[in-house]
Amino acid sequence: EIKFYSNPVYLKDTIAGSILFLIDETEQIRSQRIREEFSANVSHELKTPITSIYGFAELLKNDMIPAEEDRVEFLNSIYNESKRLLELTDDIMKISKLEEGSELLKSKVDLKKLSEEVLFSFTKFAEDKSVKLHLKGEASIIANENMMWEMISNLVENAIKYNRENGEVTVELNEDGKVKIKVSDTGIGIPRAKQNRIFERFYRVDESRNKKTGGTGLGLSIVKHIVKNHGGEIKFKSKEGIGTEIEIELPKVT
Ligand code: ADP
């Protein structure tokens, strides 16, 4: 989208000519639109849990729930919705921080050690779903360590979350000029028609399916930002009912 601006040029009070400015606003308009959409989505996403917390609390406060077991159920809902609210605000803050684009502190990161720690942190979550976790290969990189943790952790969390009972998750590291981090699972996969949308903010493949599994719809969007900030690329393959494979390629020194 090209905008025209024409400014008159004065020579001693009389117009001597004019300068024509041509400004390409496509990128500006696009990012403005993305920002507006994001704010609208944030408000909507925050409003849902706040409305239910408020509703449940009001009923409890006014003594409108006579049965003890119903009260416990209401308190549980308040607890769950508050937890969701915390997760949402955490993720939103992470995205805002990444978008500021400020220079990240970088150091040498042993990705094998880091992945071991990430996998360890998911031991209980994986056990509950009877999912086995594996780590292959090794690699090191100059990058921001917290971001590398966040990136691998989001991918592993999804790989477990969207897996099947007795499924497998493998983190594979590789170094051949570039650093490659591949997270594959034997899970439910992503329908082809929806694959190009999964990196969008708040996008979730199937709301009802996800209600049970929890999540904010921001995880992959955070991953995409981290990869972009480190000058890398994301590729993925997914087949419904077979599994998903997400591969990140980063320069050795980012
Ligand atoms: P969420 O918090 O919903 O997990 P993400 O941004 O991490 O949000 O992922 C977006 C959507 O992409 C998820 O809701 C899910 O439907 C789909 N998805 C992500 N990773 C996988 C995976 N490994 N297997 C199947 N579906 C996935």
UniProtKB/TrEMBL annotation:
Coiled coil: none
Subcellular location as annotated: Membrane
Domain Histidine kinase: 41-254
Signal peptide positions on this chain: none
Protein's name in the database: histidine kinase
Organism: Anaerosphaera multitolerans
Full-protein positions shown: 302 to 555 of 555
